[in-house]
């Protein structure tokens, strides 16, 4: 076979061919490596495994990190790490590593920015030295997205506070921690008072502004170790972790209540918000999470019953009270739906002519098991439970139907007065709903008088507009319980009002032969100067009736003129329109 001589070594053609193939393969391998390294769109470099010095770097790395090639090759690999991670890097390199490994690191760019990278490394020999080949993939956007998703999963989107899931987890941690002697924690439930009126009257944008401001004030009122959360709607919660005495939670509750008392500017309006706060204490390792949260909720419910801006500390006896109240709310809801309520009608009498001109419809509830329940008990409950709109609609529907029935029975048209709760004005369709109900009964708007309290007329932002529209449609408007609110003459004269109803507490001060009711005389004179009629409520004695007639009061209502009666009992009085005979009963 042919042979060739090379430096005294005799090579066969086969050997030459193999050598050429090997050299070609090496060149091809190096070319492939160069192509994969140099042209790779991901940053890559090689560094000395002993000195950590950069040995080679590709164009993608230069572009991503901002260094020139000379700058890169003059540095060590630990110089692109934040100082806090240098120790971990050296520990990792000192460990027995597999030939291939992958880790997540933080790198510092030349301009100082920190990015998250996923590092894939491969140990090899480079220029005769043990080295490491690195491919770095920037995962900063992915990490930020993961962090956002993680934050969204455990935080309220609107306010940035913890959400129910995270709050529950924090309470679980507080419950689980044991061995801390007498230390304890507290959970506060906060429910904003009358927040729905803001959303319903001016929209959710203003409501969102208020919620965000409440969240800011909550954060400011707490320690860094405490947790504030929004449970949804206008419900918030606070975890006060590690208490040494009960006074801490009370102090925080008062601080929160005080912070909420300041007005909030939203959508060009000023809003006053307050919160009802329930406090429940828990001992580490001694309470279940559900028990603590439930107790705080029960206490909050009790605080709300006491009035706006109050707080209450949970007591075991509250459970029975809340369960009883919840049962009554359910029963009231059913009574409204099943037409199990009833109406009585109290005459409204023209004092000059001693003639009945109208009636006020008053709702009654005779519970099948509890017996008669006073309106003073179930009407406020309806307001708290969100049932007042349904209750008022029920009263209006049945009262107008009864007036229609009287008309068909030959009784001349009379007017009927019904109450409109302040919370009704949060319904944007209130005017249309009232007008439709009256039209369905076949009555004229002038036959219906809508009574609103003084507080509702002045403090409910949407009340003025709604009352104006109703009055334009022909309805009559009266301010009920006048004199016990906070009205001012300058505001009163701008309200669309036909009548003022003097509260019974002022009428009670009238005695025979003496003028002990200057407020009554003042209200009558003021109303007449504003071209309004006056109705005195709670007229129960001849002395009161005589005084009101002398003072020029237009109308009276009370047991002296006619007690509340069922429709069939009052019907004979309506036929001849004479005032009812004097009653000896109080009321």
Structure description:
With 587 residues, this protein is an alpha/beta fold. The protein contains 21 helices and 23 strands. An eight-stranded mixed barrel has the order 15-16-18-19-20-21-22-23, surrounded by four helices. Helix 8 packs antiparallel against helix 9 and helix 13 runs parallel beside helix 14. The N and C termini lie far apart (136 Å).
* Apparent shape: elongated
Mean pLDDT: 84
The N- and C-terminal alpha carbons lie at a distance of 136 Å
Structural class, by secondary structure, is alpha/beta
Q: Helix proportion of residues, in percent?
A: 40-55%
Biggest β-sheet, characterized? 8 strands, mixed, barrel
Report low-confidence residues grouped into runs of 5 or more: 581-587
Count of DSSP strands: 23
Number of helices: 21
Strand order of the largest sheet: 15-16-18-19-20-21-22-23
Rg over CA atoms: 40 Å
The percentage of residues in β strands lies in: 15-25%
Protein traits:
single chain, 587 residues, alpha/beta, 8-stranded mixed beta barrel, 5-stranded antiparallel β-sheet, 21 helices, 23 strands, elongated, disordered C terminus
